[in-house]
Amino acid sequence: MGRGAARTLRVHVPAKINLHLGVGPRRPDGFHDVATVLQTVSLFDTLLLTLQEEPHAAHPAARRRMRATLTVDSGSGPAVSAGPDNLALVAARRLMAHLGIGGASGGGRTGEAATDTGTDGDRAGPTTRLHLTKRIPVAAGMAGGSADAAAALVGLNRLWDADLEPDVLHDLAALVGSDVPFCVEGGTALATGTGTSVARVLNRTVTHWVVGVDREPLSTADVYARFDDLEPPAPSSPDGLLQALRTGDVDELAPLLRNDLEPAAVLLRPALAERRAALLDHGALAALVSGSGPTLLGLARDAADARRLAAAVADRFDAVEVVSAPAGGPEVTVGAGT
Ligand code: ATP
Question: How far apart are CA 51 and CA 160, in angstroms?
Answer without folding.
Answer: 8
